[in-house]
Design goal:
single chain, about 150 residues, alpha+beta, Nucleoside Triphosphate Pyrophosphohydrolase, 3 helices, 7 strands, globular
């Protein structure tokens, strides 16, 4: 039985016809992902989504909706990750922000670039988040009740 839950958040950030994505190296291979990361102990999930997006992309964002929940098991570690995906609006680029060490770069990508076979997704959850967004699966933030 696992002794730790791996709760993560991710944001789908769209500007015009491009999406804010990150490139990172996992197990020696470069992959693309939405800005995403772990929720810290005692942290509100909405705050975590804003924080992770800033830390990985240097963009300040406003969370505007909830896209959905997914999970995946890592084929290398066997860890199951639980992922809350939020829709976010880009506000401004923060010139003073430093990207997390494990992020190679952040960039705006079109759907064609995201789906290009040369851009390997970190997991199937990357495509699922965008597909859910494009399908109009956006729920109001009122479904979250923050008790923190």
């Amino acid at each position: 039985m696992p002794d730790k839950i791996h709760l993560t958040v991710a944001t789908v950030v769209r500007r015009h016809d491009e999406y804010l994505m990150v490139r990172e190296t996992v197990d020696g291979k470069e992959v693309i992902n939405q800005p995403a990361g772990h929720v810290e102990v005692g942290e509100d999930v909405l705050d975590a989504a804003v924080r992770e997006t800033l830390e990985e992309t240097a963009w300040d964002v406003k969370i505007t909706g909830f896209i959905g929940f997914s999970n995946a098991k890592s084929p290398t570690s066997g860890i199951t990750y639980y992922r809350l995906v939020f829709l976010a609006e880009p506000l401004n680029f923060n010139d003073d922000a430093e990207l997390d060490n494990d992020i190679n770069c952040a960039e705006w990508m079109t759907l064609d670039q995201i789906r290009d076979p040369l851009n390997v997704p970190r997991s199937d959850m990357v495509y699922k988040a965008i597909d859910d967004y494009l399908s109009g699966h956006i729920f109001p933030l009122e479904i979250f009740h923050n008790g923190l």
